[in-house]
Amino acid sequence: MIWKTRRISLDFNDKDLHEGVVMAILNATPDSFSDGGQHDDHSKAVAAGQQMISDGAKIIDIGGESTRPGAPSVSAEQEIFRTEPLVRALRAESEVLISIDTSKASVATAAINAGADIVNDVTGLTGDSAMVEVCAEAGVGVVVMHMQGTPRTMQQNPTYPNGVVTEVADFFKQRLDTLTAAGIDLENIILDPGIGFGKTLDQNLELLRNLGTLQRQLGRPLLLGVSRKSFIGKITGIENAAERDSATAALTAMACQQGILLHRVHHVPANLHAMQLAAAIQQV
């Protein structure tokens, strides 16, 4: 499968990508659940991004608004203030792929103008009526995520009468039809099942068991974002989110065994090593 972005296409049949691709999380926010406040100073954020690139990340995903459960929204102006200079600085120094994590069209536009290649939208391009047109016209790569509700409400008794795997698959099929009809190339779209976004612990685990099935059914690459999430703490007893990297890497390896080759993570080396080991096992 191929994922086209604004400048570069990633061909997952290419031997150079057989281990997969790390999308590193760079939150320029004061309140993200595991790294809030660490990168809200511009110079620190640029340095962190440079380190992620040095560690082997092929994509840097820059966010200016927390999407943790219960998180309050921020204005587009504040998001742009936090993210646009960071996108511009990293683009000036590197050819790495840059993703903007936003559901606001104006924020996406500012980031694209500064050099972003990808729009990562937790609402699946449903939160802002202008977002589809922005993405179609710019030819950016698009990450469509599934979320039941909003970050403020999503963990208030999420239910899936037809089963979480079936309903997530149906959502993606509808979004693919809608977005391609609106002018976004199918090969520009990848899908994120939204682990932890409007799902119970059991629903998260059900999705994790069926990642490979979902990817085969939908015919598009899946992006897995489980890094440091609270369900890991519920299972392992690790209360401090920043201490969940080894458990995250275990899930990364498990997903690689199902053919999932895109991983959005906080700690690049641990997850890259997990991907390398999983790929080596697959090749024997």
UniProtKB/TrEMBL annotation:
GO biological process, one term: tetrahydrofolate biosynthetic process
Keyword check for Ribonucleoprotein: no
Domain Pterin-binding: 20-276
Catalytic activity: (7,8-dihydropterin-6-yl)methyl diphosphate + 4-aminobenzoate = 7,8-dihydropteroate + diphosphate
EC number: 2.5.1.15
Top enzyme category: transferase
Entry keyword Magnesium: yes
Lineage: superkingdom: Bacteria
A GO cellular component entry from the record: cytosol
Pathway listed: Cofactor biosynthesis; tetrahydrofolate biosynthesis; 7,8-dihydrofolate from 2-amino-4-hydroxy-6-hydroxymethyl-7,8-dihydropteridine diphosphate and 4-aminobenzoate: step 1/2
Cofactors (names): Mg(2+)
InterPro entries per the UniProt record, alphabetical: DHP_synth-like (IPR045031), DHP_synth_dom (IPR006390), Dihydropteroate_synth-like_sf (IPR011005), Pterin-binding_dom (IPR000489)
GO molecular function, one term: dihydropteroate synthase activity
Keywords attached to this entry: Folate biosynthesis, Magnesium, Metal-binding, Transferase
PANTHER family tied to this protein: FOLATE SYNTHESIS PROTEINS, FOLIC ACID SYNTHESIS PROTEIN FOL1
Family under the similarity heading: Belongs to the DHPS family.
Described purpose of this protein according to its UniProt entry: Catalyzes the condensation of para-aminobenzoate (pABA) with 6-hydroxymethyl-7,8-dihydropterin diphosphate (DHPt-PP) to form 7,8-dihydropteroate (H2Pte), the immediate precursor of folate derivatives.
Protein name as annotated: Dihydropteroate synthase
Organism, as annotated: Oceaniferula spumae
